[in-house]
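Researcher: Last one for today. Full complex below.
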Amino acid sequence: MVSPLAIVLFFFLVLPIVMILVVSFWRATEFSIIPAFEFENYEFLFGSPVTYTVFINTFKYAILTWVFTFLIGFTVAYYLAFHIRTQTWQIALFLLCTIPFWTSNIIRMISWIPFLGRNGIANSTLISWGVIDEPLEWLLFSDFSVVLAFVHIYTLFMVVPIFNTMMRIDKSLIEAARDGGASGAQILWNVILPLTKPGIMIGTIFVVTLVMGDFFTVRIMSGSQSANVGRLISNDISLLQYPSASATAVVLLLTVLITIGILLRFVNIRKEL
Amino acid sequence: MEPRPRSFYVLTAFFTLFILFLYGPTITIGILSFQGPGGGLTFPMRGVSMYWFYDLFEQQAVGDIWGSFRRSIVLGFMVMVTTIVVSVMGGLAFRKKFAGSTILFYLIITALVIPSILISLGVGLLFSQAGINVHWATSGFGSQLTWTLPFGLLIMFAVFNRFDKSYEEAARDLGASPWQTIRHVVLPIIAPSLIGVALFGFTLSYDEFARTLLTSGSRNTLPLEIYGMTTNVTSPVLYALGTLTTIFSLVIIGIFLTIAVIMNRRRAAKGNDAGKGMV
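Model: Here's the assembly. Have a good evening.
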């Protein structure tokens, strides 16, 4: 029963990873890649100051995006789970939140350009309101627009698992807390938040890994002005420097897996589904 | 009903803003795609026209939009069907522990969290070193499965965690073979969730490009075409294409949701005659 699954994962996940690992020790010429066993790619990677800047940048995006997606996602899930009273409305509003997930990410990203550009909607509105005199330059092609796009695309990955765990909270626990004299804020902090932790963790895993592995959001939204690890890899690929791309990919994969390993210590995924 | 607390209104306002944040930009480019022929990438609108949509149907300077659209749809259906079949089989198998089940489970999680570009790079290297040409229907297809299968399987795990095994036991007691039990008892019960798996399978494939970037060969899928256009097309024709493909996605989502609703209705209408004294 599992053999089709095992075959797909073996040929398109395990073997490719092994291949990347092997090629990361190879040598590249201008036209081709040559089997070898050298640490040159790694030496170059760890010897270059660019690598560290880019890794720090990647973590910066991941953390900033996590903070915003968590705050927004938790609030939205809380609203849907505890303030909407009929199930029909809950499903309808939940679908309203999820539909964009099934449409194209690139299109959703490009959609920000008329908003944020120098003569875009945001700037012209702010000028007409008299809030600013000159167009803000940092709205588009900046860290701001990169994080904005990440939050726009990935908040859903927080909403869904958090909503899912919130729906399974026994309502009598909340009534008991209220009967015991807890205020709304106390219930939120001492009852709902701890019980929602598994959902938060699953959402966190999604958001952090998606942001860390991204390469095109940063390219499109920063106007090629800033870089993360994914872009480093895709640049090497476009220059046909596969061994060096592979070495970076190995380090990125290890970073992501270690991060996930740490996060998984807080939650048992299989139990939470 | 007890009166709404004040926090309800604050949160409703927040939720409305969130929905606006989600849909606002897409609606904006929807409007901007109707720019007049002289219009640019942002407001003001210089007239209203279908010019940029017509432009899409003209011969494009770069790429082959309609060919790529066709390929994306075919690939989407291939991925969808495979995802449904493999996920159901995997879901059934994972109900019991088997040799290697833990490893396989962690591989599924790895497939979900591994940066897409690594799959692209790895599969691309694998094929080139093996001397096989990459093609959207072979290497592209396999690469996309590493993204859709984990979603399909997670849905199936969730479904089977809530599955009442006594139905199967009842079927077995009445003498159903294992295949009959699956065909006539398990599959009908889980059918509505399969709509969900199908929706994920098709749409995730239709929009995926990071995993197809190095694995689709010389013939692009639509997202790759759009990705290429973002760097060298600076006219509202990009918005027109974006609007069309978004509408297409919405239609697909609408179809799947309608099927799900109809299925639920029919099920509710048929109901259950247990305990009603019918023979």
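The CA atoms of residues 32 and 239 of chain B lie 7 Å apart. Chain B has a mean pLDDT of 86.
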